[in-house]
From TrEMBL:
Mg(2+) binds at D221, D245, D249. GO terms for molecular function: 3-isopropylmalate dehydrogenase activity; magnesium ion binding; NAD binding. The lineage of its organism: Bacteria, Pseudomonadati, Spirochaetota, Spirochaetia, Spirochaetales. Its EC number is 1.1.1.85. Pathway: Amino-acid biosynthesis; L-leucine biosynthesis; L-leucine from 3-methyl-2-oxobutanoate: step 3/4. It comes from the Bacteria. It catalyses: (2R,3S)-3-isopropylmalate + NAD(+) = 4-methyl-2-oxopentanoate + CO2 + NADH. The gene is leuB. This is 3-isopropylmalate dehydrogenase.
Length: 364
């Protein structure tokens, strides 16, 4: 297979982790007989420095002409004082909206090798966590009508959803539930918000097409609590843009390390998907060879699975990551409280070495 992948390294640790994911993608291409052509996209703070804005139209165009896009992260203190329209994070909204990737898939998986990094008690976690959050990504309050009064003392943002916007997310939630444990939980605030009540009506309608899936509902406040109280009750969660934003960060924390979690943003399948680790640009460790590249490498695996339908290749990456962890290799963030033992065993590694190890294990 020959495909074009747009690389959007971004800022901070973004370029470091994307470089390692590219090495892994190249190793997959070699092993399975594929060819990837890469295009480079400048976005975020890097684009502000180069072009004066976070996502110039022609940079978005490069993504749209590709078969898939892999993003590192954007942002950093250098650009924190700019007006909100000019901030690096605007590039994220521009990419998501421009690429029409309306669903964000965030698997929150606890790797058994990293169980110690999970802040929850053993009896809560049991033999592991595997939750898939399907977050609506191009609608709701982040894209709704907003404003600030002339005197600056009143401000508003609007949560607005249409039936088709909700239906495609809920349907995706049912579809993934069918290939997993057949449980879907819709998270909302239907006791207060009209838009949430529409989410429930739509879910009830779509449910008729998936009689095997057990559908439940939770209010966002309760769901946030349940996620730490009894996370194993969840299989697939479908929710709005803002609630999904909050829940997926919470879910990432209970799995242990932000440096391990990948995400996929996908649309109706006619355009390229956008793949990225869930962490930010980590300015505190940028350029120090300290960043864990595994979240980005696992995002590359999702890219192969969802955009190119290459399940064996995606699994090969995930298996290589698992084998590297089995053998005790750790970056600082996942060594956690065992850091001294890991160091003494000579298995504490940096960004580059971790990337090389995944390639090595992939080729075994
Ligand atoms: P962050 O995710 O960048 O960092 C939070 C903490 O986690 C830091 O201590 C960091 O060192 C650590 N960390 C993050 N990724 C890591 C990795 N791969 N390996 C090891 N440690 C890792 O969040 P933040 O500090 O709140 O934000 C920093 C910048 O990133 C801000 O400008 C923010 O706006 C931006 N940001 C971008 C995205 C994105 O591009 N999708 C997402 C979140 C934040």
């Amino acid at each position: 297979m020959e495909k074009t992948i747009a690389l959007i390294p971004g800022d901070g640790i973004g370029p470091d982790v994307v470089a390692e994911a590219v090495n892994v993608l190249d190793a997959v291409a070699k092993k399975f007989g594929h060819k990837w052509n890469y295009t480079n996209v400048v976005a975020g703070g890097a684009a502000i420095d180069k072009f004066g804005k976070p996502l110039p139209e022609e940079q978005l165009e490069i993504c749209l002409k590709s078969d898939a896009a892999l993003l590192g992260a954007v942002g950093g203190p250098k650009w924190d004082n700019l007006a909100s329209e000019l901030r690096p994070e605007k590039a994220l909204l521009g990419l998501r909206g421009g690429m029409k990737v309306f669903a964000n898939l965030r698997p929150a998986v606890m790797w058994k090798q990293l169980k110690d990094a999970c802040p929850l008690k053993d009896e809560i976690v049991g033999d592991g966590l595997d939750i898939l959050i399907v977050r609506e990504l191009t609608g709701g309050i982040y894209f709704g009508e907003r404003g600030t009064s002339a005197d600056g003392n009143t401000a508003w943002d609007t949560e607005k959803y249409t039936r088709p916007e909700i239906e495609r997310i809920v349907r995706m939630g049912f579809e993934y539930a069918m290939s997993r444990q057949k449980r879907l939980c819709v998270v909302d605030k239907a006791n207060i918000l009209n838009s949430s009540q529409l989410w429930r009506r739509v879910a009830e309608d779509v449910k008729k097409d998936y009689p095997e899936v057990a559908l439940s509902y939770l209010y966002i406040d309760n769901a946030s609590m349940q996620l730490v109280r009894n996370p194993r009750q969840f299989d697939v969660i479908a929710t709005s843009n803002m609630f999904g934003d909050i829940m997926s960060d919470e879910a990432s924390q209970i799995t242990g390390s932000i440096g391990m979690l990948a995400s996929a943003s996908i649309g109706d399948g006619t355009g390229p998907g956008l793949y990225e680790p869930i962490h930010g640009s980590a300015p505190d460790i940028a350029g120090k060879d300290l960043a864990n590249p595994l979240a980005t490498i696992l995002s590359a695996a999702m890219l192969l699975r969802y955009s190119f339908k290459l399940e064996d290749e995606a699994k090969a990456i995930e298996n290589a990551v698992s084998a590297v962890l089995d053998d005790g290799w750790r970056t600082g963030d996942i060594a956690g409280s065992h850091i001294d033992e890991v160091k003494a065993a000579g298995k504490l590694v940096g960004t580059k070495k971790m990337g090389q190890l995944v390639v090595e294990y992939l080729n075994k």
